[in-house]
Amino acid sequence: MYLGQKVVIVLPAYRAALTLKQTVDEIPMDIVDEVVLVDDKSPDNTVEVARQLGIKHIVEHQKNRGYGGNQKSCYDKAKELGADIVVMLHPDYQYTPKLLTSMIALLGNGVYPVVFGSRILGGGALKGGVLNPDQVVPVSEKAWKTPGSRMFVEPNRPVRVDELLKGMIVQSGNDACIALAEAVAGTEAAFVERMNREAQRLGLANTRFMNVTGLPDAQHYSTARDLALLARAVIRDFPDFYPLYSTREYTYNKITQPNRNRLLWLDPTVDGVKTGHTESAGYCLISSAKRGPRRLVSVVLGTASDSVRAQESLKVLNFGFQAYDAVKLYDKGQAVSSLRVYKGQANTVKAGFDDDFVLSLGKGVADRLRVQLVSQQPLMAPVRRGQVLGTLKVLVDEKPIGEYAVTALEDVPQAGIIGRAWDSLRLFFE
To answer: In which domain, by residue range, is 154 found?
Structure first.
């Protein structure tokens, strides 16, 4: 309750399994009475995750009704629960629930009849529409005075977002980083908080950001693995902007600066990603190359010079392409196995992967590879598409090299009362 008013949070969900917990964990339950999730027939296990999180009010659409239909179901359920204040919160974590306390206070005190949040997390400011490439933003004195490499923006001279992106990516402009952070979040500190939440979402378990520039700080750290995961996310999630990383030079304010990634001139298959250098970190380079259908990402840290980081990065990329093969074990949607289902309208469910399942293996290793599926038994209906059903263990010479989640490739609705009773009897005697 907030000042005697019932507060209901509604979550219009579609494929929210990976971000739902992060969203729910930040809901201020001290002033929220009820949480409602409406699932628009997600192909993943959103509903299962919601139940695990203890969400009491779950509405499942039997067919996808689209965003508008999902919203209608949300509001209908909120009215049914007698809500005085209804807050729609997207469980894809593009809104931070930490703002809800302030938003609810504005509504509960009658300051405004409607309050809107800013959709800038998760997918990013550009995807969310907070910024657009042609938009002009101001340059603060802080951005202007930022030390290290710069694109040479000037205070009181607004600059377009697309110029700042090139200055940040091509010229390693710390001033551009600050200007963009302030344009999105108001302050660098506020943007850093969002960076750390995004790092968590991406699974960067050993990364913590303290600033947006990478300048030295005792609490600012990452690992080679986390940086590789971050580069992969950039390449995968921002295909429209990734070509900027292969731009060899950029001119701003009549100053032309080359891209510091030497591999762009040494190897035509290299198309990114980013250099870095401080006295404490040394010369670092995350690089990526695509040769044929394969793409590899290399991370080299702490070298003594610009030339050494380029040489070592090229060695790593060449070794990866020459010594390893990309082996496709299963196609997207291909059944790894058909698993027995009890109490369902079907007796089996196909289990597999939502994307092509490809492993990078050493030359000649593929012939010695064996897979083993470990499934959850007994498996009870209902089963939803995307629900985790087991683990595929990959072994080479009988030694495990990895374990991968296998999910349902189809729905299996619950059977009627007679079918469920019959399977209960069978389970009793098996």
So the answer is: 124-231
Are 7 and 32 spatial neighbours (Cβ–Cβ below 8 Å)?
A: yes
Considering the entire predicted model, what is its pTM? 0.66
CATH number at residue 145: 3.40.710.10
Shared domain for 162 and 199, answered yes or no, is yes
Are residues 131 and 224 located together in one domain of the fold? yes
CATH code of residue 87:
3.90.550.10
| Any domain includes 42 | yes
**Whole-number percent of the chain with pLDDT over 70:** 96
- Residue 3, both tokens: 């000042």
Distance, CA of 423 to CA of 378 (rounded, Å): 11
| CATH classification of the domain holding 371 | 2.60.410.10
Query: 269 in a domain, yes or no?
Result: no
Does 91 share its domain with 129?
A: no
134 class by beta-carbon count within 10 Å (0-12 exposed, 13-18 middle, 19+ buried) = exposed
Strand 136-137, strand 270-278: pairing = unpaired
pLDDT(121) > 50: no
